Each structure stands twice: as C-alpha cells, then as structure tokens.
Amino acid sequence: MLVSTWSLAGFVVGHAGLYQALAMFAVAYFIIGMTVLSVCAIATNGALDAGGAYYMISRALGPEFGGSIGIMFFLANVCGSALYVLGLVEAVVDSFGVPPGQKVGTGVHVLPQSYWYELLYGTILLALCLVVCLVGASIYAKATFLIFLIVAGVLGTILISFFATRPIGVPIRLPHFNGSEIENGSFTGFSLATLRDNLGGGYGVDYTTGQMMSFSSVFAVMFNGCTGIMAGSNMSGDLKRPSYSIPRGTISAVLFTYLVYNLLAFFMCATCNRTLLQKDYGFLRDISIFPPLVTVGIYAATLSAAMSNLIGASRILYALARDDLFGRALALAKKTSASGNPIMAVILSWLVVQLVLFSGKLNTIAGVVTTFFLLVYATVNLACLALEWASAPNFRPTFRYFTWHTCLLGIAGCCVMMFLISPVSASASLGFLLLLLLALHYLSPSSTWGYISQALIFHQVRKYLLMLDVRKDHVKFWRPQMLLMVQNPRGSARLIDFVNDLKKSGLYVLGHVELQDLDALPSDPLQPQQDSWLGLVDKLNVKAFVSLTLAPSVRHGVRQLLFTSGLGGMRPNTLVLGFYDDAAPQDGLAQHPAFTSAREEVPLGFPPVRAPAAPKLLSAREYVGIVADALKMLRNVLLARHLESLDKAWELRRAASSPPSIHVWPVNLLRPDSARYADTCSLFLLQMACVLNMTRAWRRAHLRLFLCVEAGAMPHAQEDKLRQLLKDLRIQAQIQLVPWDAVVSLHWQAQRAPPGGPALAEEESAVNFPANATQVSDEYVCAANKLILEQGPAPAVRFLYLPRPPADTSLYPLYLHHLDLLTRDLGPTVLVHGVSAVTSTQL
Q1: Quick one: pLDDT at residue 102?
Q2: Boundaries of each SLC12A transporter C-terminal domain copy (predicted)?
Q3: Tell me: the pLDDT tens digits for 532-573?
Q4: Distance between CA atoms of 54 and 68, rounded to whole angstroms?
Q5: What pLDDT score was predicted for residue 99?
Q6: What is the DSSP letter of 570?
Q7: What average pLDDT does range 307-319 have in this prediction?
Q8: b/e string for 374-404 if b means 16 or more Cβ within 10 A?
C-alpha cells in the first residue's frame, strides 16, 4: 500500500467507497483536531524543550506517565518511519521492479524482487534518511521545504490531470502463483455513473498482502497518513519560538490535509472505477499529464515522512535519556555533536527502524503504529484535561480555543478507535504501558517537574471536604481521629506505629511543639524540620499528617494544635499522649524494623533523646493540665505507657501458635464506689479495644474483658448483663469475673478513717475528685495494680479506665502519682477517657 496523501485517498475510497471514506476522514480528523487543540494549549503554557509530546506529557502528568508514553511515542515514530520506508520500497519496486517471468534488464524494470532485495532497498533508503538526520535539523528543515515545494507542484498537476486527461483504459498486472495476470481498470473522467458505483463500500483483497480488507484495517492504514501533526511538536527543541510556531503550523497542516483528502476522494470516486482504485495503488501515474512528476512526488513525500519520523524518534529518545528516567539504559543517547545534534540518539533510532524493516510488509505494522499513535494522542488529551480540571492558577495558555469537553472527546475517540482497529493490539499496548508505568513508579528517581496528580488530589479533596458536613455526623459512622503528641520520634517509634493501628481509617496527625519565640528568630525554624518528619512518616509507613507549631510552653502548643489541626469535618477528636514518668527515654528508632535495613538513614535530622539527668520540657502539673484542657474541649484522651516495649513483630510471629490477648478493664479503678460498665467512658474504652482488634495486624488477638465483682452483688447477673451489652455492640470478647473484695476493703477503710492524727497525712495524699466524695490511698492503688498483674498470662496490651483530673489543680501531681502507681510494671498500657458517644446498636 502506498503511503502518500494522494495515493492513500485512492486506497481508502477504492475499498470503503466515498461515504465511508468521508466518514473515516471525519473520524480521524476529529480525533486529530481535538488532540491538536490540546497540543496547542500545552505548547502555549510555557517554554517547550526537546521531546515534543513526551515533554508535554511528562511535565504535565509526571515522570511515570511521561516516561512510559515517551517510550510508546518513540516506538510509534520508529515503526512509522519503517512504515514509510516500506511504502517507498513498494512504490520503487512497483515502478522499476522486474515482473515475475521476465529477466532483469527489460525496459525500466531493472530491480529484482524478493524479500531480501526489498530489505536491501529499504536499508539503502533508510541510510539516506540517516545521513540527512545526522547532519542536523537545519539541513532536514531545508530538505523538507524543498520536498514541500515538489509535493505542492505534484498535487497541482494531479488536480489538473482529473480535468485534462481523457478517458483511458489502464492495464493492471497483478502477481499470480503462475506468474502474473492482467486486469483492466479505467479512468472515465468525471462520470455520474462512476460516482454512483463508488459511493458504497466494496472491500476486497489487498493485492500486496493477499489479506481481506475491512473498515478497521483500512482505517488503520489511512490513519498513519495523518500522524504528521506531531512532526512540528517533535522538533520543539529545534524551533526558535515553539509556542508560536507549533499552534499555527499544526492547525494549518491539519486544515490543509483534511481539505486535500476530501477533495481527492471525491475526484477519484467520480473519475476512476473500483478496479483501478483497488488493484493499482500507483494509478495516478497512469492518468497524470506528466507521469514522471507524480513518481518523483510520491518518492519525495514518502521519504520526507520517513525522515520526519526518524528525527522525531531521535528527539524523543534524547529527551528521555536527558531526563534520566531509565538510568544507564539510555545513557548513550545523551551524546550530542558540537552543534547540539543528538547523533547517538539518531543512530540508535536508526538501528531500531532497521530492525522493524525485517517485518517486510506494511500491514504487519500498520495496526500497531496506529494503536501507538492513538494511545499517545489520548494521553496528550489526558494531560490537557488534567491541567484544566486541576484549575491550577499557573495553567493559563495563550491558546484558548479548547475546553475540557474537547479533551474528553479526544480521549474517547482515541480509545474507541484503538479497540475498533485491533482489540489485540490495543490491549497489548495498554498492558505494555501499564508495565512501564509500574516500573517507572518504583524505579525512576523523583523529579522536580511537579505532579499533576497532586493538583488533582488537592482539587478533589477540597471539594469533598466542603461536602463533609459536621452537622450530619452520626454515631454509627464515628471513627477515631487521632492527634499524637511526639516530643522526639527517636523515643516514640513504636507508639507512632501503635496509634496508626488504632486510628481505623480515621485522621491521624503527628503533633510536635517547638519551644521557641518567633519574634526572637530570623526565620521559621519549623520549615527545615518538615521534611524530616515527612521522611519519618514514609519510613514508618504510617498514614499520618504532620503538624508542627511554635509555642512558649508545651501546654499552649497542644492547645493550638487541638484548635487548628485538621480541616472542616476532619479534625482530631482524640488526643494521645505518652505517659509522664521518670523513666529515661530510649532511642528505639534504630531498632525499628523500618530502619534495620537502612541504618544510615536513621538520624533523619532529629536530635538525640533526652539524657536522664536533663530537665524535662514540662512539669507534672502542666502535663495533667493538657489532659484537662483536652477534656474541656470535648476531646477523648489516651495516655500510653510502656508502648515502646511492645514488640508487634514478635507478637505477630507468635500469633499462629499462641494468639496474643488484649486485656480490657472498663471500670474506674480509682473510683470503686461509682464503678459502672455502661457509662460513656467505659463504652469508649470498649470501642478502642475493639478497633485495635479489627485491624489486620491484631485480628488474631483475643479480647478479654475483666468484670470486677464483690461478694453478694449477684456477679452472674452482672455478667449476663455485660454479655448482652457486648452482643448488642457486636463485640466478641471473653468475660472474666475478678473478685476484688480485698481491694475494695482498703478503699472503704480509708473512707472510715477518723479526722486528725494519722488520717490527716492520708488525706493530704488523697485525690479529691470533682464530686469531692472519694479519697483514694496509695495502698488501695497499689492493691489495684497487683490485682491487674495477677490476671495472667501477660497480654500484649492493656486498656484501663482513665479518670478525669481533679477540679483542684493543686492535686494534679497527686493524680499523676496515682496513675503511675496504677500502671506500674503493667507493660504496654493505654489509659482511656472518652467524652463522646461512639457505639450504636442500630442499623
């Protein structure tokens, strides 16, 4: 099949008829037109460099899409160059080849015909293209301008020939297994009868391949003749003003070629019978008033197209190599001549085209080339669509004749035609593209081009955050949204990991307070720290945000974060703190599994942990004040103690043979006289333990719920009531009755102690709770701690009820002292106080 504008039109109308040919041209140029609008928009939105469509896509969609589509576009241009070379060989052999049964040297037919001879002719023609491309873009531009003048002259001659040539018969020699056979085509001049005969489709066998033609196969070949729209953008690095030249040149070329295709299709249908159109793709020489000029024009146009694709492929390869997306694999393609011509990229492209030439026949690669080009065009439209939908202020192209509708139509048209032409090629191309995407995503270095995905995510998140109405919150859909305060991640790595398991797909914020005064500083000290914290989040593989603040005290900083963290309906509802004690912090970051294979990255810019003799950044009174502040702000509070001793990896390894357990104590052990199992705080504690048990890492753990009972208090009735509550809440847990008469008796003894004497000292060491009705002694708290320890075997983690801080702030240190006694030596423990309803028994 001859690949040139005028002969291509004859091939299309010969098989498809005028109506379907016009439809094919309309569909092809609709896709091309939509893509051209996207190309012009991107080309006029900033400075363009070498690479054309690859450069546009990579800088818009990021390195993954850009690199994968760059390879696809490179292959499309390589195959396109081979396609045009094979077309030129076919035209040369058709004119000068020795017909079967004749000897070499008869008339003008002097070129032997065989697969290897045709491969030799193609190699010689490709070498000519290589020489021109090696000289540089300037000689290529001069050569293509000269070819344009020749083609324009030939086109004018052909149009005149339709009117000037008289009706003639054209003998057509067709290859046959016995040699050759002769069929007669005819040029009738303008004839209504001829036009009627050529209106409908009449698909036949392609005489060059012996394959039956169809709408999709004809469209595949026809579309290859329309892919020159990217020739100008491929030369973007060689143009003086690409943002000016690409829109004007590309749109002019599209309009001109569309007009020529339709005009030639009509003239051919009105003047040539179907036999001539189907059986002789070089019939224009026979009807021309000057046949040699047509031959020269065909050769020139096809050679120009081959060079255009070869030089386009080399520029794309050079741009890919320069961006280092494939590392050393393309390092050789970076080499350029003294004038800046990427000679190694040209030579590598030439080698790949030479390999494609071994396919031998046009139809072998026509469908693949078309699929590749359609995929590239679809991605160009996708890039422009993404930029438009992202609504980024810096996307303001000077070319404004496009909308997101044109981009979407271009994408849809490309995808539909890809699968209509060849479902197998389309599926294989998409699969190859997906593999390249995944490879580049995991292996390519990070770039500084900007990622359109971030802009699109921002746009969508903002929209959905506005739709997230806090007034429509319902307890059925409650989830924990955590703010974990971290002084130094070196001593909190396992706590960070634990809270990540506890968040249940909710918001998770790592908060940090820097004790400095911005007025006394030259710049914000938090900005340099941001990357270290984000790097920590990546290394620990936790789904968390980072929120840093400056404050004169830790308490003020935590208040700021509780007020300002989050956005809209996504705000922290639970504050998590490490426990305040005298234990020296340990640097557990180096022992964390995330850092065992990359110890050189452990520092991450964080200071060493606090030395044991160094003063703390906050006092006990301030620490308890933070808890009180959070409860006043209606935030749930979790205090985590000994979480750094929780080896989750070990717990998971032993889960197969001995599943770990989670102990839950839903009673306020510091208020035994008002212990209840169904208050808001107890239910919240149950919910948090259940949430932890629902996560994948803790799914095999067993929940054990401890019911503290006294003699004569109908323990079985209490157990049945609690079991029914767990059933209503769909919580699976084992209930264990714990007699605690001996412990409670210590509490009542303290209550009955007479005033004055030794009791006065005890009163001073007691906690007056807001109701001022309970006094708790150290002896009682130690007994409660011992009671918890006796319930073996030791669990992976314990959940205990956290009472509210006393109303009298002077008792804050004593309150913290009792919490210390209660949780001493318990191992990983979480003290929980909930202020919001979080459980529901409704659908």
Answers
A1: 59
A2: 494-582
A3: 888 888 888 899 999 999 999 999 999 999 999 888 888 999
A4: 9
A5: 61
A6: B
A7: 86
A8: bbbbbbbbbbbbbbbbbebeebebebeebee
